[in-house]
Amino acid sequence: MYDIIIKNGLVVDFKIEQLRKTDIGIKNGKIIAIEKDLQDGINTINVDGKIVSPGFVDIHMHEEIIGNTDDGDDYDIGNKMLTMGVTTAVGGNCGNNRMGIIDYFNFVDENGAPINYMLYIGHNYYRNLIGVDRYSAPTEEQLEEMKKLIKEDIAENGAVGLSFGIEYSPGITYEEIINICNAIKDYDVLLAAHYRSDANRGVESIKELIKVSEETGLPMQISHLGSCTAMGQMKESLEIIQKAIDRGLSIAADCYPYEAFSTYIGSSVFDEGCFENWDKFYDSILLTEEPYKNVRCTEEIFYKVREEYPKMLAVAFVMNEEEVIEALKAPFVYVASDGLLNRGQGHPRAAGTFPRIIGKFVRDEKKLELIDQLKKMTMLPAKRLKLKDKGELLIGMDADIVIFDYDKIIDKATFDNSTELPLGIDYVIIDGKVAIDSGEVINKRLGKSIRKVQS
Ligand SMILES: [Zn+2]
Q1: Is residue 88 within 8 Å of residue 450, measured between CB atoms?
Q2: Which are the contacts of 285, defined by CB distance < 8 A and separation ≥ 6?
Q3: Half-sphere exposure in the Cβ direction for 302 (13 Å, CA)
Q4: pTM, entire model
Q5: Which residue from 246, 422, 267 is spatially nearest to 337, judged by alpha carbons?
Q6: How far away, in angstroms, is 259 Cα from ligand 1 center?
Q7: Spatial contact of 154 and 189, defined as CB atoms under 8 Å apart
Q8: Ligand 1 mean position to 194 CA, how many Å?
Q9: What is the largest CA-CA distance in the chain?
């Protein structure tokens, strides 16, 4: 007797790189059978002709600010992740955490969560907490304090790795990065980094991250490559990364499928010189919150909002879509949302990334290939995160599954309406239990914390 039988689905099989019409039997949270004509399920889901994929593993998103939403549901971003088929996501990216990782993990485990969460510990989280100015270097004492706290989160508190947000704290030197990495390099950790700068300085920024990996021996996940070099430098940056991989380094990257990035208007990303670097004007910036919701900047508005509403999310239309597509074709670039919302407002990537790739770029525009992209949404990030039981549909693996209608799947979130839910995600199963049933969210609390255990 199975808890769930998924009948007649087109099951994603990465071994043969194809879809295979078969059934899946689930019991106690695990996949225990993959064969035709399974019988005796407590719950049988008939999905004739729909695609059955491993749940999406989003290696780069941003966790919630607990208590930040108006409707009393803390998981503003996590809820969007679930509705686009994500079952496991990694927060703490770009050097930033919303709260201490132990507190976040405990909140998730006490309250349940829409999806499973892993967390990086963010370098800037502690850098800011202990009062290092973003344009300065830390004192010797501050550096030692940071190293102690970061090491503790890696060794004991379950962080999957360490993330940097170099662009957000221009005072970070290469030496500071190496110094901190050296304190944790005996552990099993993944580094992730939001680079030092983009566009004309993007390539040198990527070289710096490769050098960090080379010098420390630690694997490096380069964050949202599109917003770094899809301004004319993508070809060169992909070649440089490929060469580093060929030399034996463990480098990968992630990318979201949009031609605009998003971050806080008060951040150093928008410091003097940014428009010259992008070769754009003030009107390339769209504001996302009242009293400037959906307003394009003028020079006056830009400086006023930076001064008065530095925590407002802004969207910058400065990338080329063709270069984003080029990135998504590279074998070492994974699909990740970089999902980030502030009181329900922000960039549509938080609610649209995965359906957009499949519906728009694979099915409609035929610019990307289905199995290849699914691999970048599931198996590859799961392997990178060393999640041995996730990312593939194989016997013995966790029953984290998304079932979607290939003819209907599409993102609906836009820059004007950034949290509109996608279409075509029919079922999401987390840990062998149904979270989305026939397109309806029926359980938003199946997710848990996944804390990295160091041996
Ligand atoms: Zn970032």
Answers
A1: yes
A2: 265, 270, 296, 297, 302, 314, 315, 316, 317
A3: 18
A4: 0.96
A5: 422
A6: 15
A7: yes
A8: 5
A9: 67
Query: Quick check: 134 pLDDT over 80?
Result: yes
CA of 340 from ligand 1 middle (Å) equals 10
Q: How far is the CA of 415 from the centre of ligand 1 (A)?
A: 18
Q: What is the dihedral of CA 216, 217, 221, 227, to 10 degrees?
A: 50
* DSSP H helices in 217-285: 226-229, 234-246, 274-278
Summarised one tens digit per residue, pLDDT across range 192-209 is: 999 999 999 999 999 999
pLDDT-derived band at 67 (thresholds 50, 70, 90) equals confident
Output the six-digit token pair for 47: 């999905």
Contact between residue 265 and residue 305 where contact means Cβ atoms under 8 Å apart: yes
> What does the alpha-carbon distance between residue 430 and residue 401 come to, in Å, rounded to a whole number?
7
- Spacing, Cα 102 to ligand 1 middle (Å): 22
Neighbouring-strand partners of residue 314: 263, 287
Query: Which amino acid, residue 213?
Result: S
Amino acid at 150: I
Mark residue 199 as left, alpha or beta (left: phi above 0; alpha: psi -120 to 50; beta: remaining).
Answer: left
Cβ atoms of 260 and 318 closer than 8 Å: yes
**Lookup result for tokens 């609906």:** 412
Rg (CA), the chain: 21
Number of Cβ within a 10 Å radius of residue 455 = 4
Q: 21 alpha carbon to ligand 1 midpoint, in Å?
A: 39
Rounded to the nearest angstrom, the distance between the alpha carbon of 221 and the centre of ligand 1 is 12
Strand locations in 305-383 (E): 313-316, 333-335, 341-342, 345-346
Task: Report whether 449 contacts 117 (CB < 8 A).
Answer: yes
What's the mean per-residue pLDDT of the chain? 97
* Exposure letters 17-48 (e unless 16+ CB within 10 A, then b): eebeebbbbbbebbbbebeeebeebeeebebe
CA distance linking residue 105 with residue 445, whole number of Å: 14
Residue ranges with strand state E in 317-421: 333-335, 341-342, 345-346, 401-404
Confidence of residue 345 (pLDDT cuts 50, 70, 90): confident
Amino acid at 328: L
3-class secondary-structure state, position 49 = coil
